[in-house]
From TrEMBL:
Membership in a protein family: Belongs to the FKBP-type PPIase family.
A Pfam family hit: FKBP_C
Known catalytic reactions: [protein]-peptidylproline (omega=180) = [protein]-peptidylproline (omega=0)
Domain PPIase FKBP-type: 104-193, 252-338
Keyword Isomerase listed: yes
Low complexity compositional bias, start-end: 29-55
EC number: 5.2.1.8
Protein name: peptidylprolyl isomerase
Transmembrane parts of this sequence: none
Gene Ontology MF terms: peptidyl-prolyl cis-trans isomerase activity
């Protein structure tokens, strides 16, 4: 069962205008039974059109960046001149390297947003913590997401977003955005995490015949996970399969992971990020206790095998494909801390 923790601050580019309250309702879906994101903001009908218009992307016009032109520097952007396009205008200012961002990828960015007609900055996170979101989840306004799709890590893009791909005719009063405003964003793409990412640590021998064995492949594909025909442990097991060299995870961190979960009794898979070809992000404080306890202190870049007894999972309640009183076995690749 996932928990929602309140969002203390919501960037203006996000679709929701208010934080999420705690959600204690049960779900019958497999996704809600797994340790998956619990803070994904929901779209506000008053903030965006009910259906995203089909998008034609053009190269301009976009305003000039007059200061802070280097990647990572807070930009200064001129006021827009003339009539902005009714299509999404996107221009790459600094090309990056690597794979192009695709739907489902987790992207970490710095951004600055202002109004075309006034150059009034309504939101920025330059000088603050990077902002991360998963494309394809309606986490941000449509024009912002579509502007970064196809961009590469370490690239900078500028986009002029028409109202239909921003906040629609309602605008966003909290941010001072009218329903007729074209929005201008400068976005630096800091990191991109994809379904092909994998742990890359040093192999740690798995010598206990009474514990599951996890594959050590690092090609982004799901590792094998074999459960022995023995009695399940009654206490949490958290062992390295691959030991990375990154910093130790804190219980307060938000992680990017690849994972696979099977039932101890049958070895049957009940959930996997690999099956969706997407990495997953979540606050470690908002998942089942076995994950919170078992991953705290482990190093970024590692693959960890978890055996989670019922008391640290779903206890005596069935959750979708997970029966009551089930011991769960996971392989977890800790890709990054956001």
């Amino acid at each position: 069962m996932r928990r929602r923790s309140a969002l203390l601050a919501v960037p203006a580019l996000m679709l929701t205008a208010a934080g999420c309250g705690k959600d204690t309702k049960k779900s019958d879906s497999a996704a809600s039974n797994s340790p998956s994101p619990s803070d994904s903001p929901s779209a506000s009908p008053s903030a965006t059109p009910s259906a995203t218009p089909s998008t034609k992307i053009v190269s301009g016009p976009v305003p000039a960046v007059t200061g802070g032109t280097a990647f990572g520097s807070k930009p200064t952007v001129a006021k827009g001149t003339g009539t902005p396009s009714t299509d999404l205008a996107v221009k790459t200012l600094i090309p990056g390297k690597g794979a192009a961002i695709a739907s489902g990828d987790i992207v970490q960015v710095n951004y600055l947003g202002q109004v075309w007609s006034t150059a009034k900055v309504f939101d920025t996170n330059f000088g603050k913590a990077p902002y991360a979101f998963q494309t394809g989840t309606q986490a941000v306004i449509p024009g912002f997401e579509q502007a970064v799709i196809g961009a590469k890590q370490n690239s900078r893009v500028i986009a002029a977003i028409p109202p239909a791909l921003g906040y629609g005719t309602t605008g966003n009063a909290q941010a001072g955005i009218k329903g007729t405003d074209t929005l201008v964003f400068v976005v630096d793409v800091l990191n991109v995490y994809t379904g092909k990412d994998s742990a890359k640590g040093t192999v740690v021998p798995q010598t206990d015949a009474n514990l599951p064995k996890v594959g050590t492949n690092t090609d982004g594909k799901a590792p094998s996970l074999t459960v022995p025909k023995t009695k399940a442990p009654t206490k949490l097991v958290s062992n390295y399969v691959l030991e990375g060299d990154g910093k130790a995870v804190k219980a307060s961190d938000t992680l990017v992971v690849q994972y696979k979960g099977v039932l101890w009794d049958t070895g049957k898979e009940f959930d996997s990020s690999y099956s969706r070809n997407q990495v997953t992000q979540f606050p470690l404080s908002s998942v089942i206790p076995g994950w919170t306890q078992g991953l705290t202190g482990k190093k970024v870049g590692s693959r960890v095998m978890l055996v989670t007894p019922p008391a640290l999972a779903y206890k005596d309640q069935a959750n979708g494909p997970v029966p009551a009183n089930a011991t769960l076995v996971f392989s977890v690749d800790i890709i990054a801390v956001l």
